[in-house]
Automatic annotation (TrEMBL):
Organism (species): Candidatus Segetimicrobium genomatis
Transmembrane segments annotated in the record for this chain: 243-267, 279-304, 310-333, 345-364, 370-389
One Pfam family cited in the UniProt record for this chain: DUF8173
Protein name as annotated: DUF8173 domain-containing protein
Superkingdom per UniProt: Bacteria
Amino acid sequence: MRHGLRNAAMVALLVFLFVPWPAYAFVPRAGENVAFSQAIQDDLYIAGGTVTVTGTVDGDVNIAGGTVTVTGTVDGDVTAAGGTVTVIGRVSGALLVAGGTVEIGGSVGRSIRAAGGTVRLGATAGTDAVLAGGNVTVADTGRVGRDLVAGGGSVRITGTVGRNALVGGGNVVIGGSVQGDVDVQADRVVVLSTARIAGRLRYAAGGSAEIQSGAQISGGVERVAAVRPGMREISARQSRFRWLWRLGEWLGLLAFGLVVFALLPRIPGGVLNEIRARFGASLLTGFVVLAAAPAAAIVLLISIAGIPLAAALVLLWLLTCYSGQLVAATWLGERVLRAVRGGSAPSVSWTLVVGVTILVILYAVPFVGWLVRLLAVMTGLGAIWLAVWRSTRSPAPSAAA
């Protein structure tokens, strides 16, 4: 049965890797410290502990890493995720960024989507910008061609917005130029003397907006009703039960992991070796599989004969995505326990318990919890597929004489 599952996994892997469609043309790079400075006419998939892109890419760039820096020229779209992400080059397409700290400079031809603990936009966006984080800043050098949507604990806008701005947060400061209307919902609203709003300022806040002398609001100021009273009660009930969801997630991951590791005790070691020896390759492989497998399933659905294989591929993809969190948790728990116990090898069960506990706590952190989940899924997913791939390439044991 084990060989049957392995063969099925390999069939699915080969299908989504070699289905003849253009999205599978790419140049991969992976490692602990990766620097890319060449000029290519293709898509670039790159992952590692520290990743730097200074070259020219005539295609899309997809990056995952601990520290990500893009200073080169990209003629397509850029998708980047990491602990610290800095994009200060020229991007002709759209930019999608997620990280603990996000810094965006240079120029972006189309839209910008960014989320993180701290997000700072100092770039020129050709169309719209959507920003979310603990602290969000549109700096003086920031230019949004059309609409701006920003939300966070603290939001500060001193740049230029070509049309309208929709802002929500705890503390909102507006000191830039907005060519349309500004709609704000916040605990506190401050309009600096440097603000130039061509349209109307509408706001809902705990108190009156603080509008400094010199601020220009051509369309007038309107204070609107805050959130409906019933919404606050709903939010309070949701917060009371949120911990139950986290507890259920912790129990579910832990139970599933203990059962899988008990039934297949040899699997954790091989998969964990992939992360230990090839962390960057695991992250990159997980990134590719996460994005490409659903697309391959859609391609297979075109023909009647491909429907069963598409269904099998999607199910296998979902299973390995969930299992990837267990792999990442076990690797994390192992590192923590080795550090605490002075290098002695901990049991798989304890590493799983510690790792799952740490991950679930990190998942609950506002603004960055989803990024931790994404990185955990990608790392574990990549390690699983690499382990399956290597197992098919290992020589079969010789028969006993």
